[in-house]
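Recall from the previous lesson that a structure prediction takes nothing but the amino acid sequence as input. Here we apply that procedure to Transketolase from Streptomyces dioscori. The sequence below is the only information supplied.
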Amino acid sequence: MDTMRDRFAPVVSRLLDEDPRVAVVLAEIGLADFAEARRRHPDRVINVGIREQLLVGAGAGLALTGLRPVVHTFASFLVERPFEQIKLDLGHQDVGAVLVSAAASFDWPAGGYTHMSPGDVALLDTLDGWTVHVPGHPDEAETLLRHAVAADDDKVYVRLSTQSNDRALPVDGTRFHTVREGRAGVVVAVGPLLDPVLDATEGLDVTVLYAATVRPFDAVTLRHATEAASPDVVLVEPYLAGTSVSTVNDALVDLPHRVLGLGVGRRELRRYGLVEEHVAAHGLDARSLRERIDGFLGVRVRA
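The prediction returns the following tokens.
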């Protein structure tokens, strides 16, 4: 199966052909994938070199002219390094862009901590008005990329990962998807962590919600699920643990409830290792998730 990032250039290249408002801004990363599109649209495929602050600033400048810029590089270089430009050039100037990242939290361990970004979504949460898509399958990534580009002048972040679920679910860029229904609690699985969550909760009497879009947060579906089950919620996110705990609390503010936020820990793992080893070290493998979910909810096995 191809990866989410394998879909990125072909999808956006087609969008360049279809929509004269679309432009692509790159900082060397991914440039070769747009070679043909650059020949067809030399004025709308722009490489700024290894200058990530300029990457975002150029995207904002294009947005000010009425274009819909798609800005791409690794997550750590797209969100963390040029954060001031995201805050000011896009936010303060009130213009939109589609930021599309690669490498997620630790998709390329050999790149070291400079190429890891578990805090990207939490960092964007300090700003107003961002839509955040976290697809869990290449088909979902394609759908959500199209949603993002079509979203007029909205500020949208699309978080691509090499980690993937086995099958795509229908995503609409808005609502959570109910995968299982149970009575002992609600588990919200985000993006590529759905498969481990399903393995971890096999046979347990819990509701499993799937989130491929986390901002805005689908409070309506979550409330509906907690009304039919226990109002205790476990969040399983592929980035910094606890990132969405406050959004769950806001959604359930008038209900007595408990929340457990699982995700990537704050402690830096200083050995490269493999993606699977990082997953296990952060307790995001199916076995660890089952222990943590069961320990929090005290879940009984379905009869």
